[in-house]
Fold these 3 entries.
Entry 1:
Amino acid sequence: MDKQLQKKPWWKKHLKWLIGGGVFLCWSIYFIAFADHRSQVRIDASRVTISKVELDNFQDYISVTATVEPIKTIFLDAIEGGRVEGILLEEGSLVNEGDAIAQLSNTNLILEISNNEANVARAINELRTARLQMEMNAMSIQNQIVQLEGDLFIQKRKYDNSTTFFKEGLIAEEEYLRDKTSYEASQRQMNLLRESFKRDSVYRGIQIQTLENSAQRMEQNQGIIRQRLDNLTIKAPVTGQLAALNLEEGQVISYGTRIGKVNILDEFKLKAEVDEHYISRTRKGLKARCQFPNRTIDAEVSKIYAEVKDGKFTVDLEFDNSNRQNLRIGQTSHVKLELGNSSKALLLPRGSFFQSTGGQWVFVLNKDRSAAYKRQVSIGRQNPRYFEVLEGLEAGEEVITSGYEIFGDNEVVVLN
C-alpha cells in the first residue's frame, strides 16, 4: 500500500541559499556601516623610518655654519689718480699705520700744484701790498692832521690878537673878520679830518683783519694742495693685514678707485647665515656656542642684517673674553645659536615628512604596527634634532618620519 508523500515547504528546498544570502547580507551591512573605506597603499616596512614621540626637555636652538672674519675691515681707495710706478708690499703682508704700500706718479698733478703755488704766492704778495698801501694812507692822514694842528695853532693865535686889536680900534673890522673866518674854517677842517681818520681807522682794522684771514686761508689751502703730492704714496690707514691689493705696475688708476683693503687683526667676529624662518626670534645678545676643531668658544649676536637673500639673513657674532688665539680669517665653525630656554615638551624627531606636510599632519602607527593612519597635528618650535608637538600626538606613539611622496594621496599606509 503506497504512502502519500508530503510536499516540502519552499523554504526548506532553498535553505542553503537562504543561509548564504543572509550571511552575505549581514556582511554587506557590516561593511557599509563599519568597514574602513579610506584609500590605502601597501609599503614594505623597511622603506620607511619610524620614530617614537617622547616627553623630554626641548632645547630651543638652531645650528648654523659661520665664518671667521676680522672685527673691522678698512678699504683702500685711491685719493689721487695716477700711474702705478711701484708696489712696495705684497698682498697678505702685515702693515703698520702709515706704511707705504704703492707709489703713483701724476705729471699733470705736479704741474697743477706748481701753478697753484705760484698763484697763491702772487695773491699773498698782492694782499701784503694792499695792506702796506692802507698803512701808508693812514700815515699820510696822520701827517695832514699834524700839519693842520700847527696851522690851527698859528691861526688861533692870530685870531686872538685880531680880537684884542679890534676891540682897541687898532685894526679894521674887515681884517678881524678875515682872521676869524680863516680860524673857524681851519677848525672845521680839523674836525672833519679827525672824524675821517677815526672812520678810516675802523675800516682799516676790518680790512686788515679780512686780508689777514684771507692770507691765512690761502696758506692753509696751499698746505692742502701740497698734501696732494703725498697722496701719490698709498699708505696703510691702520695697523693690520693687507688682505687684498688690486694693483699692477704700469696700471693707470683714477680718483676713488677701490685698490684693496686692510683687515684689523686685534679682534675677530663670526658671520653666519640664518634661515628667514627665525628672523622674528633672532635679536642682539643671543648666546651661541662656536665649535672649532680643538675647542669651543662662547659668543653672542652683535648685529642683525635686515636684508633677506635667497631665504636667509645674515648675523654677526662677537666672541666673549675667551682665548681667541690661533683663529684664522676664513675658518669655519659650527655654531649652536640658542633662541630660548629649555622646557618640557613632546618631541618628535625631525624627518623629511615635514617637506610634504608642513607639520600639519603625520602618519601614526597603530598598536600592532601593521598600519599607519593620517592624523592632524600641530607643530611648534624646532631645533636640528626635534620638532615640538603642541597637539595631536601623545608620548609613546610612533610616527613615520621619512618622506611621504611614495604614499601619494592615500590616507592609510599598510606595512608589510
Note: Helices lie at 10-13, 15-34, 107-167, 173-230, 353-357.
Entry 2:
Amino acid sequence: MAQSVTRSLVHPNIHRTVLDNGIVLITVENPAADIIAGRIFVRAGGAWEAREEAGVSHLLAAVITKGTEKLSSLEIAERVESVGASLGTDAAADYFLLSLKTVSADFPDMLSLAGQIMRSPTFPEAEVELERRLALQDIRSQQEQPFTIAFDQLRQAMYQDHPYALSSLGTEATMSGLNRAHLQRYHQTYFRPDNIVISLVGRLTPEDAVDLVNQVFGDWQAPPTPLPTLTLPKITPQPHWAKTPQETQQSIVMLGHIAPSVKETDYSALKLLNTYLGNGLSSRLFVELREKRGLAYDVSAFFPTRLETSQFVVYMGTAPENTAIAYEGLRTEVERLCTTQLSDTELQSAKNKLLGQYALGKQTNSQIAQVFGWYETLGLGIEFDTQFQEKITSVTPEMAQTAACQYFIEPYVSLVGPSEKIEIQP
C-alpha cells in the first residue's frame, strides 16, 4: 500500500502516516515498558450535534461497546478483562474517543476488538434504553448541584444557540427524545476512515503499527458522500447577569468572558493568565480571596482548550452573606490584569508552573497517545506540542496585558444561592 509518511522534525520517534483510506496514524515508539496504549479519535462530538439531538455523542459512547455484529456486550467485556486490558469510550465537545491499553502481546487482539466496535456496533435497543435512563438520572442529579447549575447558566448565556452552550449530556428534553435510530444515523455519518485519527504509543515500530492498523481497518472504505461541513452559529457577545435562587449553604459566583480558540494568536497568553489567576494554592485568586480575605470555600479559574470560541471563567463558592463582596473581589482581580502589568517574576512563575504541569501530563504511553492524537484531530498537527511550549515561553508581560485588555471587558455573571443574597446589582 502507498502511504504518506511524515516524521516529526522535533520528535524523530514520532511518525505520522496517512493510510490509503484516509485514516491518519500517529505512532510513538517507546520500548521502555511492555505496554501499548491506543487512542482512536473521531472528528465528531458535541459540536457536531443538531440542537434537538444534544447528548447523542454521549449516548453513543455509552452504548457503542454494548454489542457488535459478532459479539455481545458480555463477550466484549470478557475479551477485555480476560487479558487485564482496558478499553473505554468518551465523547467531548470536539471529538469522540475510544481508548485502549494492554501488554504488547495482546495488543493485536485488542485493536481488532476496537475495530469491530468502531465499525459494526449494533446499539441493542435494551442497552440504548438503559443508558438513556442513566443519562437522564445524571442530568437530574446535576440540577441539584449549585456549581453545575451556575456553570450551565453561564454557558447558555455565553454560547446561546452554539452547541458549546450545553453539557455533553444535552438536556432532559433532548436526551428523552433520543433512540437507536439517532445513534445509527450519527454513527453512519461520522464514523468513517477519512474522519479518524489513530494514535499508538508503546513497544511497537512504526512499520508494525501500519501493518496492524491496515489489518484491522485497511478494507474500510470511505463512502462517496462528503463529510458534513461543520457550520456553527456566530457568537455575538451580550454580557448579562443570570441568577438562580436556591436555598443553599453557599453561593456560587461565576464570571465568564468570551475567549480565543486554540488556533488563535492570544491562546497562549490566556493560558498563562489562567495559570496565574486560578491554578493551585499559590494562584492569585486563592492567595488574595481565600488566604488573605477568607472569602472562599473554593475559588479558581479555567480556560478550556477548544476548537471553536472558548470561555475564560473565574468562580467562587462563598458564604451567602459574602456574595456581593465575592463578586467584587473576582471582578477586581480579573480587571487588574488589564490595568496592572504582571512583573517578569510573576509571569515566569506562571510559565514554570504551566510548562511543568504540561510535561507531567505526557509521562505515560496513554497520556502521550492522547496529546498527539488530540492535536492531530483538532487540525493542529503533531508539531503543536513543541509550538505550544515555544509560544508559552515567548509571552511577554506586555502581550499578557494586551490580551487581558482585549478579552476581559464586561463579564457574563452567573449567580446561584439564597434569593435575597444574590439580588446584587451590576
Note: The two ends are 64 Å apart (CA to CA).
Entry 3:
Amino acid sequence: MVLRKREDTEKMTISELKRYKLRMQILLYLYKEYPLSASSLCTKTHVSLPTARSVVEELIEEGAVRVAGIGDSKGGRRPILYSHAHDAYCIMAVEIGHYKAKALIFNSLNSELTSIVEYSTDIDDPNLEEKTQQVLEILSKEAGISSDKVIATGISMPGLIDTTNGINQTIKNPKLQNVKERLSSYMNMPVIIENDARMQALGEFVFGKAQKTKNALVLNWNWGLGLAMILNGQIYHGSNGSAGEFSHIRVSPSGKLCECGKQGCLQTIASARALIEMAHDYLNRGAVSQLTGLFQKDPSQITVDAIIACAKKGDELSILLLNELSKKLGWGLSILIQLYNPELIVLNGPLAQAQQYILVPIQQTINQYCLENIQNNVRIEISEMGEHSGLKGVAVMVFQRIFRDKSLETNSL
C-alpha cells in the first residue's frame, strides 16, 4: 500500500519515515508536473539520482507510477519520463449548491472517469452522509471500479468554512456543522471540505482563464455572489477561512432582508434571486415581455436561463433586467478593483452565460466608479470551464493534500 495511515507512519523508524516522505514528495511532483524524468525529480526533491530512481522503481512495482515516454535529449541519452499510473488513485469531487449538488470521479491524471451526477441536497441536509455515499456507489459503478478504489472525497460548499477542522459555520444546526467528521466516519475515508468559490478559483487558476495570473478575482454569480481571491499567486483564505464574503457587504441600511439576517446586503440587489424578483415586479406592473407568454400560467417559475434566452432573442425587458442587475454588480466590483488591483476578474455561474448583456454594463459601471489607472489594468472575462471549474478545483485540492509531504495523515486530512 503506497499511502499509509497516520498510525502506521507513527510506527516507522526515522529512516523509514524519511523514505516514505520522499515517496510522497515524488508523487506530489508527478501530480503537479507530469511527466518528469528521474533527474528532474532528484533536483526537485534534493536527493541523489540513484535514490530518486530507486524510489520511482518501487512506485512502479507497486502500481502507483508508470513509464510515460521518452524525453528529448539534451546532449546525452534521452531520459525516461514518468507519471502516475492512470488507475492508481481516484477521488470523488462534490460541489454542493443552494439546492442541489453535483459529483464525479477523477483519477490523479486529472481525467474525468465518469459523467457528472446531480442530486438534491443542500448544506443543511441531515442526510448528506447517506446521499454522498449513494452517489459514490453510483459513480464507482459507472467508472467500473470498486468504491474502495476511491481514496478520498473532496466537497466544496457555500458558507464560512473552517478548512482545518472541516466545519461549515453557516450550517444552521450546530450538530451538523462538522461536515468532515460526519462524512469521513460514515464513508470510512478521508473527506476534505472547502469553500465553493475558492475551489472554482483554484480550477480557473490551474486549468482556466486565471492561469499564469498572480492577482485575480473569480466570482460565481448565482443565488449568491461567491468570491475567491488569488493574491500573489495564492488562493487567499483570510485569518480564519472567511475571506471573500462579497455577498454580504452592506450597501443599503434600509434595504431588503438578506438570508444572513442583515438588511441591505449586496446579494439582495445583485444576485440571481434579485434578477427574478425584478422580473416579477416589472411584470406585475404590466410590462410587456416574452416572459409573459412563457410563464403565463405560473410566473413564479421564471428562471435566470429563461431571462437570458429571451434577452438573446431581443426581448427588451429581459435586456433591461440584465442591464440593471449588472450595473449593481459592477458597482460592487469597482470597490474590489480599487482595493485589490487585480489583473483579471473571471465571471462564472448561470448569470455569466448572458455574455455581452452583462459584460457591457459591468464595464461601463467600472469606468464610472474606478480610478483610470486602476481600471485600465483589469480584464473582465467569462469562464470557459462552466460547471467543471469547481469540481476540477476540488480534485486538485484533494490530490495536493494527499500527496503533500507535511502531513502524511491520509486518514485525517
Note: The chain is about 40% helix and 20% strand.
